[in-house]
Design a protein that fits this description.
By secondary structure, the protein is an alpha+beta fold. 32% of the residues lie in helices and 29% in strands. The chain has a single domain, classed as Peptide deformylase (Peptide Deformylase), CATH 3.90.45.10. The protein contains three helices and seven strands; from the N terminus they run H-E-E-E-E-E-E-E-H-H. It has a five-stranded antiparallel sheet, with helices on both faces. A two-stranded antiparallel sheet has the order 4-5. A hairpin with a 5-residue loop joins strand 6 and strand 7. The longest helix is centred in the last third of the chain and has 24 residues. The mean pLDDT is 95.
């Protein structure tokens, strides 16, 4: 399972609701956790692995969180916001400060189709919002003004070119 990077069209597509809860969905979930752990991330959404379905996984061991969200819907956000540095597995090596609500409540389903509701704060709330954005074709840099977004895109391209050069030398 390959994590798609900035520039891949799939990252800007709005995802479809999941209607079939089967073994294939559970396999997708398992593979997403594996890919996320291998890349040392805390969250991973369907489009990041080329799947335009409304699913994301989050794992934050320090907060004892491991949760799969199918067809998530953020139903409430706090008025209070906070600015924190965010990164993304689709833009490896880059981070930027992003302002988001500090708390969220989300309704979703698990891979069996069973509904649940989660109220989260801190990193968990931020990860939910970040991954949910992916399902709507939004990357965290899309929250920046145009000049800063363009700067980040150029930085990403330079980092990718440097990685390719380094690989060719070895």
């Amino acid at each position: 399972m390959t994590i798609r990077k900035l520039g891949d069209e799939v990252l800007h597509q709005k995802c479809e609701k999941i209607t079939v809860f089967d073994k294939e969905l559970k396999t997708l979930e398992e593979e997403m956790y594996k890919a996320m752990r291998k890349a040392d991330g805390v969250g991973l959404a369907g489009p990041q692995v080329g799947v335009t379905k409304r699913i994301f996984v989050i794992e934050i061991p320090a907060e004892d969180v491991m949760q799969t969200f199918v067809n998530p819907e953020i139903v409430e956000t706090s008025v209070e916001t906070g600015v924190y540095s965010e990164g993304c597995l689709s833009l490896p090596g880059l981070e930027h400060e992003i302002e988001r609500p500090l708390k969220v409540t989300v309704c979703a389903q698990d891979t069996d189709g069973k509904p649940f509701t989660v109220s989260a704060e801190g990193l968990y709330a931020r990860a939910i919002q970040h991954e949910n954005d992916h399902l709507n074709g939004i990357l965290y840099i899309d929250h920046l003004d145009n000049a800063e977004k363009t700067r980040m895109e150029h930085l990403f391209v330079k980092k990718q070119e440097a990685l390719k050069k380094a690989k060719r030398r070895h």
